């Protein structure tokens, strides 16, 4: 996932603690519940598409990669909750999942978890919320490739319906500069495997990620990648230059210059103009810092482009986005 590419939702008041007691699961293990909170932080981060439709089950904190230069999550220590903790969270989630048929596994890339653990997490969900028939989560491309096709098929059969991946940009040079740890050919191979198994995949993209130095590469690279990959959904957010990141230091030293709001929109408009997508929901939730443009492609592509061109006429957006204050400014 991406630190710029996540929605946040204030957790419902579900943080009562579960203490003591045991519960025998279908998996055959006895779960002993100790102090567990449903959500660790005050906010939870989910893709914009999942926020209102899925029950969020926290399984992991931090990310297995944590090297992306722009990412404020990269500083977070990785922690994987134990199966008893996850079972306790699942039990606490029941009242809030009654009207949901989908669970979203919270954490920066739960698909990186070992297969045995994922199996048991899926069993926990089936035990406590048997009406749930879809599971979604964040993933990296290399998490997909690290699973065999048989393992992915097993997860799909057990309910894995969608993975949300932080693509950020389809330009290899930008990904390399940001230390994203993705090679375009590998990413396309991951998409091919997901398509083959009918596991939907969605991308977050970050407008302005290349700065003034590499912006010219973003639209051409992203057009080529997205048209080849054919994702189900694309969510564009704008770069936030978090002060606690390597990118911020690079910018301070003059090696990176942010795009203005106007330049970011030009970059995204140019990308959209070249997209040839068969069936894709598109949303840019940070247009000029205060607008959202969305549409379904291909039939609403012309409307999305027209809206972006119209917004480009608005005066007063020739400044770079402000530096966010960690803990005080909403992310994403
Ligand atoms: S993969 Fe990169 S952007 Fe996503 S959470 Fe990890 S460090 Fe952050």
The CATH homologous superfamily is named Aldolase class I
What is the overall pLDDT average? 90
Low-pLDDT regions:
5-29, 328-332
| Broad structural category | alpha/beta
Radius of gyration: 20 Å
Q: Helical content, roughly?
A: 25-40%
The overall number of domains is 1
- Distance, first to last CA: 11 Å
Spatial ordering of strands, largest sheet: 5-8-9-10-11-12-13-14
Give me the number of helical elements. Answer: 10
Strand content: 15-25%
Give the overall shape, derived from the CA principal axes: globular
Largest sheet: 8 strands, mixed
Keywords: Iron, Iron-sulfur, Metal-binding, S-adenosyl-L-methionine
Protein name: Fe-S oxidoreductase
Biased composition (Basic and acidic residues): 1-11
InterPro entries: Aldolase_TIM, BchE-like, Elp3/MiaA/NifB-like_rSAM, rSAM, rSAM_sf
Summarize the structure.
With 332 residues, the protein is α/β, with parallel strands linked by helices. Helices cover 35% and strands 21% of the residues.
Layout of SSEs?
Blueprint: E1 7-10, E2 22-24, E3 30-32, E4 43-46, E5 55-58, E6 60-61, E7 79-80, H1 83-97, E8 102-106, H2 115-128, E9 134-139, H3 141-146, H4 149-157, E10 160-168, H5 172-177, H6 184-196, E11 200-207, H7 211-229, E12 233-238, H8 246-252, H9 261-274, E13 280-287, E14 291-297, H10 301-312
Parallel strand pairs: 5-8, 8-9, 9-10, 10-11, 11-12, 12-13
Antiparallel strand pairs: 1-4, 2-3, 6-7, 13-14
Iron/sulfur cluster is lined by residues 1-3, 63, 65-68, 71, 73-74, 108, 140, 166.
What report would you give on this structure?
It is built from ten helices and 14 strands. The chain has helices at 83-97, 115-128, 141-146, 149-157, 172-177, 184-196, 211-229, 246-252, 261-274, 301-312; strands spanning 7-10, 22-24, 30-32, 43-46, 55-58, 60-61, 79-80, 102-106, 134-139, 160-168, 200-207, 233-238, 280-287, 291-297. Strands 5-8-9-10-11-12-13-14 form an eight-stranded mixed sheet. Strands 1-4 form a two-stranded antiparallel sheet. Strands 2-3 form a two-stranded antiparallel sheet. Helix 7 packs parallel to helix 9 (261-274) and helix 9 packs antiparallel against helix 10 (301-312). The chain is globular and about 55 Å long. The chain starts with 6 loop residues before the first strand and ends in a 20-residue tail after the last helix. 45% of the residues are buried. The structure holds iron/sulfur cluster. The site of iron/sulfur cluster has 14 residues, from loops. One of its GO terms (molecular function) is catalytic activity. Residues 1-28 are annotated as: Disordered. This is Fe-S oxidoreductase. Residues 49-278 form the Radical SAM core domain.
């Amino acid at each position: 996932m991406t630190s710029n590419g996540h929605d946040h939702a204030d957790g419902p008041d579900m943080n009562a603690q579960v203490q003591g007691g045991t519960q025998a699961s279908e998996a055959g293990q006895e779960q002993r519940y100790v102090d567990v909170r449903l959500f660790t932080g005050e906010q939870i981060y989910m893709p914009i598409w999942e926020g209102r439709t899925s029950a969020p089950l926290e399984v992991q904190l931090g990310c297995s990669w944590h090297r992306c230069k722009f990412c404020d999550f990269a500083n977070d220590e990785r922690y994987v909750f134990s199966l008893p903790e996850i079972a306790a969270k699942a039990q606490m989630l029941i009242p809030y999942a009654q009207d949901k048929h989908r669970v979203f596994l919270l954490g920066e890339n739960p698909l990186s978890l070992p297969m045995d653990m994922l199996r048991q997490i899926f069993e926990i969900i089936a035990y406590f919320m048997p009406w749930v028939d879809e599971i979604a989560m964040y993933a990296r491309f290399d998490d997909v490739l690290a699973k065999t096709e048989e393992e992915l098929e097993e997860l799909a059969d057990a309910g894995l319906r969608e993975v949300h991946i932080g693509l950020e940009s389809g330009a290899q040079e930008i990904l390399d500069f940001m230390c994203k740890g993705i090679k375009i050919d590998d990413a396309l191979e991951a998409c091919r495997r997901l398509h083959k198994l009918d596991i939907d995949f969605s991308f977050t993209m970050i407008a302005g990620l290349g700065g003034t130095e590499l912006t010219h590469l973003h639209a051409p690279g992203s057009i080529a990648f997205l048209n080849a990959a054919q994702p189900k959904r694309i969510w564009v957010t704008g770069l936030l230059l978090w002060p606690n990141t390597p990118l911020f230091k690079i910018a301070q030293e003059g090696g990176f210059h942010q795009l203005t709001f106007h330049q970011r929109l030009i970059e995204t408009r140019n990308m959209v103009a070249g997209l040839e997508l068969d069936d894709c929901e598109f949303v840019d939730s940070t247009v000029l810092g205060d607008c959202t443009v969305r549409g379904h492609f291909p039939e609403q592509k012309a409307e999305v482009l027209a809206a972006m061109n119209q917004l480009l006429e608005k005066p007063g957006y020739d400044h770079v986005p402000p530096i966010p204050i960690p803990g005080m400014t909403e992310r994403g």
